[in-house]
């Protein structure tokens, strides 16, 4: 936690640094911070920072440690997006380590004989798994951005896999949800259950085989995963259990470097995920539409109304137009233009909900707080905002024997059939249909927001609700709220279809609910909270760093 004394000492050190350097190239240092969904991952990030690593080395350490201690959320059998900002040359890039469909995948692979979608087929077992991107992304980040070796940054994760971590209430909740499917894979059950049951609170989960796989990556970089002994075991395990991966899938996997989506909104610059995440385009549409009105000057009722209406319209476009930019033509420039936003919002009425059925065009129940996000700043101003996933809790629940690698079930993020909702109730069309080697559309939206006074590193898991959570978090940041208030604030969501405003208990007062219903909104209060936001804020005026981890789950934010 940051103390006043530290801030004072800190400002003094900044002054000294600034005095020593030529003003044009003044090196400004400040505190460092890591916010992640697990205390061991946060400590791993700080360990690497304190060992001389930069934010990128810390990102490798945090990602790999989360892969060990938060197996229900992300892992080296999964993928993600790492948004990196390098202070020395003021550049920002998105490392796209998203999974791809196996080369033997086909458009209708999850349809039953009667043409209906078999929802389990894209969620449970090895046929649900895309080719993992996280190992390649970590190797790339270490080699091109890090100061330390990949091996050095993997050390805390390997240690955690060997020594183990304790089962928490959240772990138990996730394992209870997926117990029956985990039991079908003996290697998954051996790793993540205790005598085939949900482990007791405090039970230690050790993963010696995962430690060995991480060690192979430490020794050989990406080849330690995509080639050689680990690759052989991955392919053998997948194929023996009815999966379609081949060695060529692993050899061919490549990360992509993407130019982030940049959004300008009333003096704020929002730098966020590009395709194959839908987050950047959906947010650009929402902020562009919103910028036509004085949001900050509105009453709470008006704010909620306009926010919901822009969500509805932007999520419709997600369903209709968005997919892997390497495989389909997405009219990004048009969708993110102000002229388009004006057209799209022309029918928003000041006092009335627009039924989704009145919009030309195609989603149902989304997820909560698996998948993972972390935010890092180092003392030199390098920043990382990363959202990583195996999709459903514990991914596909399948571990190829001898690897310790829990495979994702990200194939469910494709649209298995136009108009049929996936696990998060999202519908899609041609642009997100399954094709060999194609990346499935994502909602993960790691983001930086900056204005003249402050900057934030923000993101969260939450399936289809990720984008609206980040949107609401950015608005609260723009409104001047502090880190704790932003991650704690109650959430609401609309995704075009179903035509329902979902909200966390407490998000809307009784009066606000009445007013919104009067305007024509269908409201659904959720049973519990959702999301797991991790946030770091730098105050550019004082150089003070603050950080916060979502109070809904078990993460930890540390500034030092
Ligand atoms: O990439 C995506 O959009 C999803 N696979 C993310 C899943 C997720 O956030 C689950 N969390 N509740």
Residue fraction in strands? 5-15%
Overall mean confidence score, pLDDT: 93
Overall geometry: globular
User: Considering DSSP H and I runs of 4 or more, what fraction of the residues is helical?
Assistant: 25-40%
Terminal-residue CA separation: 7 Å
Ligands (ions, cofactors included): 6-diazenyl-5-OXO-L-norleucine
* Structure class: alpha+beta
Task: Please indicate the count of domains.
Answer: 2
Rg over CA atoms: 22 Å
Describe the structure.
This protein is an alpha+beta fold. The chain has 2 domains: 4-13 and 21-26 and 259-367 and 445-559, Glutamine Phosphoribosylpyrophosphate, subunit 1, domain 1 (4-Layer Sandwich), CATH 3.60.20; 33-257 and 376-432, no CATH class. It has helices at 4-20, 39-50, 55-69, 134-145, 150-163, 169-182, 186-192, 208-220, 223-226, 228-240, 247-252, 279-290, 300-321, 332-335, 338-345, 466-478, 483-488, 510-518; strands at 33-36, 79-86, 91-97, 165-166, 204-205, 256-258, 261-265, 268-272, 372-377, 383-389, 447-450, 454-459, 492-493, 501-503, 523-525, 534-539, 544-549, 556-559. The strands form 4 sheets. The protein has a 7-stranded antiparallel β-sheet with strand order 6-3-2-10-9-1-18, with helices on one face. Strand 13 (492-493) and strand 14 form a beta hairpin. Helix 3 (55-69) runs parallel beside helix 5, helix 5 (150-163) packs antiparallel against helix 8 and helix 12 (279-290) packs across helix 15. It is globular and about 60 Å long. Residues 1-27 and 362-367 have low confidence and may be disordered. 6-diazenyl-5-OXO-L-norleucine is lined by residues 367-371, 389, 391, 410, 413, 442-444, 461-463, 466.
């Amino acid at each position: 936690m940051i103390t006043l004394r530290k801030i004072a000492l800190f400002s003094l050190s900044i002054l000294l640094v600034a005095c020593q350097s030529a003003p044009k190239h003044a090196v400004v240092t400040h505190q460092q911070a890591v916010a992640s969904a697990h205390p061991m991952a946060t400590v791993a990030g700080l360990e690497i920072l304190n060992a001389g690593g930069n934010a990128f080395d810390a990102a490798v350490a945090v990602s790999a440690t989360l892969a060990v201690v938060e197996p229900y959320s992300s892992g080296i059998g999964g993928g993600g997006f790492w948004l990196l900002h390098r202070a020395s040359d003021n550049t920002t890039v998105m490392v796209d380590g998203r999974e791809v469909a196996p080369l033997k995948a086909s458009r209708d692979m999850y349809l039953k004989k009667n043409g209906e979608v078999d929802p389990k087929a894209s969620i449970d077992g090895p046929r649900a798994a895309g080719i993992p991107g996280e190992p390649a992304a970590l190797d790339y980040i270490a080699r091109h951005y890090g100061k330390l070796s990949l091996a050095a940054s993997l050390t805390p994760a390997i240690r955690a896999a060997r020594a183990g971590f304790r089962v928490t209430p959240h772990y138990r909740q996730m394992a209870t949800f997926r117990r029956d499917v985990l039991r079908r894979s003996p290697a998954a059950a051996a790793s993540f259950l205790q005598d085939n049951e949900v482990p007791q609170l405090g039970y230690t989960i050790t993963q010696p085989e995962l430690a060995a796989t991480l060690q192979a990556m430490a020794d050989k970089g990406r080849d330690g995963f995509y080639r050689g002994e680990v690759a052989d075991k991955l392919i053998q395990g997948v194929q023996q259990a009815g999966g379609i991966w081949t060695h060529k899938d692993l050899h061919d996997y490549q990360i992509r470097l993407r130019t982030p989506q940049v959004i300008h909104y009333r003096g704020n610059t929002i730098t966020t995920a590009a395709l194959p995440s839908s987050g950047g385009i959906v947010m650009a549409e929402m902020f562009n539409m919103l910028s036509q009105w004085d949001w900050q000057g509105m009453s709470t009722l008006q704010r909620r109304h306009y926010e919901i209406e822009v969500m509805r319209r932007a999520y419709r476009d997600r369903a209709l137009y968005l997919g892997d930019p390497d495989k389909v033509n997405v009219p990004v420039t048009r969708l993110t233009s102000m002229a388009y936003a004006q057209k799209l919002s022309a029918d928003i009425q000041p006092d009335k909900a627009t039924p989704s059925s009145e919009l030309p065009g195609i989603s149902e129940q989304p997820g909560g707080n698996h998948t993972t996000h972390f935010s890092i700043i180092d003392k030199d101003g390098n920043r990382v905002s990363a959202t990583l996933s195996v999709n459903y809790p514990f991914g596909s629940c399948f571990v190829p024997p001898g690897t310790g690698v829990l495979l994702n079930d990200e194939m469910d993020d494709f649209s298995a059939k136009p108009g049929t909702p996936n696990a998060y109730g999202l519908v899609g069309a041609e642009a997100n249909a399954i094709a060999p080697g194609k990346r499935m559309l994502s909602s993960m939206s790691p983001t930086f927001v900056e204005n003249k006074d402050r900057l934030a590193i923000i993101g969260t898991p939450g399936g289809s609700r990720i984008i609206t959570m980040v949107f609401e978090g950015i608005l609260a940041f723009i409104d001047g709220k502090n880190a704790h208030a932003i991650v704690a604030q109650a959430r609401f969501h609309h995704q075009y279809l179903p035509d329902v405003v979902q909200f966390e208990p407490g998000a809307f007062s009784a009066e606000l609910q009445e007013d919104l219903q009067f305007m024509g909104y269908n409201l659904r209060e959720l049973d519990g909270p959702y999301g797991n936001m991790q946030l770091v804020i730098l105050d550019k005026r004082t150089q003070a760093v603050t950080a916060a981890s979502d109070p809904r789950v078990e993460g930890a934010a540390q500034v030092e």
